[in-house]
């Protein structure tokens, strides 16, 4: 029997407000445990919440960017459950009247067709604290309690783990672009719960749903969904009855493990939050917020392809974050070489950033300095190989490339007579390689070029080296 997978995602993103959703405590990441707290976010008796207007604004902004309708008359609700990191034993969230409804994101499939993934709702709520499991017991840190969240719930429109990752990547890029969240998954600013079931291919009846909780990387999401798809299919093939449950992804053993049976909405005994007034959102405010939405990543992607003539893949990667897109665009304009700008940012610079856990906005050098480096290479002052060494120095020191070149004497040698002497020496000492060339192995030319560049410490002009080798090797 053939099966089809059905996936829906519930994405929690921390909103980038300076203070928490119902009190004035800071939302800054880190800090000593239980130092970013007050009677309100600790749930102490008599402490009354007040709703942070900026949280509502950011929720509306996210909804508009995701093509949602805005609920003009709404409210906050209490979701009742007991857990050690939930100080009030209930969470202030939204139930029947979420802030945003009926939106969508479009993703591009492998055959380049466009698929629309529906967004059922976006609601705002408070985060819980954090449990710290130690060898002697479990401790709780309430610094995160009360940090504002937007929960974005997709419709069950995703049909593969790859589609789920594509959807989450695009959602992350949009939220980051509009500035409502930093979306740092490694800090928990973007977390994802996945609902997944399998059904007989062609059927319109969904299977039994499993929820996988709190995944904070694209890799973990794809692996967990692939595993769970296979687990459910194997169970059905064996005639086993699947139960609706909540599971977690065990990254060490690459399996999902059961946490508890899945709760239903009525288990939480939702009721209106009596300590907060209703929400009344007028059209004027919605339009004012709409005006603050910048060019979105997918719009920027199309413009980069058309304006800078770079490949679609490059444009997609460069627009994943607003900071990278802005760095690229300024570099491309100043250097007058968009493809070289793209290559440096996607290649050497991204590699260095990853190795050093640095974001593009924290680079010590500017787009103007990178553009200067590209012009020096294109103008023949230095070789591309030397440029790769210079970019490391620029990353470490923030110095201008011309300063580094002067300090280290890295100017490219274009003196043909001097380079000819090195080429002649390399050819004289590599008779077997020349024999291989004559026997049809043309790729050995690259090996010989590499030897010359090594002898000249990367300073020889590569174009002249190639020309001389091609001319001289025929004489042997």
TrEMBL record:
Pfam families: GatB_N, GatB_Yqey
Catalytic activity, reaction form: L-aspartyl-tRNA(Asn) + L-glutamine + ATP + H2O = L-asparaginyl-tRNA(Asn) + L-glutamate + ADP + phosphate + 2 H(+); L-glutamyl-tRNA(Gln) + L-glutamine + ATP + H2O = L-glutaminyl-tRNA(Gln) + L-glutamate + ADP + phosphate + H(+)
Domain called Asn/Gln amidotransferase: residue spans: 326-473
EC nos: 6.3.5.-
InterPro entries, A to Z: Asn/Gln-tRNA_amidoTrfase_suB/E, Asn/Gln-tRNA_Trfase_suB/E_cat, Asn/Gln_amidotransferase, Asn/Gln_tRNA_amidoTrase-B-like, GatB, GatB_C_1, GatB_Yqey_C_2, Gln-tRNA_amidoTrfase_suB_CS
Molecular-function annotations in GO: ATP binding; glutaminyl-tRNA synthase (glutamine-hydrolyzing) activity; transferase activity
Keyword annotations: ATP-binding, Ligase, Nucleotide-binding, Protein biosynthesis, Transferase
SUPFAM superfamilies, alphabetized: GatB/YqeY motif (SSF89095), Glutamine synthetase/guanido kinase (SSF55931)
GO biological process: glutaminyl-tRNAGln biosynthesis via transamidation; translation
Domain of life the protein comes from: Bacteria
Top-tier EC class: ligase
Record keyword Protein transport present: no
Subunit structure: Heterotrimer of A, B and C subunits.
Family per similarity comment: Belongs to the GatB/GatE family. GatB subfamily.
Function description: Allows the formation of correctly charged Asn-tRNA(Asn) or Gln-tRNA(Gln) through the transamidation of misacylated Asp-tRNA(Asn) or Glu-tRNA(Gln) in organisms which lack either or both of asparaginyl-tRNA or glutaminyl-tRNA synthetases. The reaction takes place in the presence of glutamine and ATP through an activated phospho-Asp-tRNA(Asn) or phospho-Glu-tRNA(Gln).
NCBIfam families: gatB, PRK05477.1-2, PRK05477.1-4
PANTHER family (alphabetical): GLUTAMYL-TRNA GLN AMIDOTRANSFERASE SUBUNIT B MITOCHONDRIAL AND PROKARYOTIC PET112-RELATED (PTHR11659), GLUTAMYL-TRNA(GLN) AMIDOTRANSFERASE SUBUNIT B, MITOCHONDRIAL (PTHR11659:SF0)
Protein name as catalogued: Aspartyl/glutamyl-tRNA(Asn/Gln) amidotransferase subunit B
Species, as recorded: Clostridium pasteurianum DSM 525 = ATCC 6013
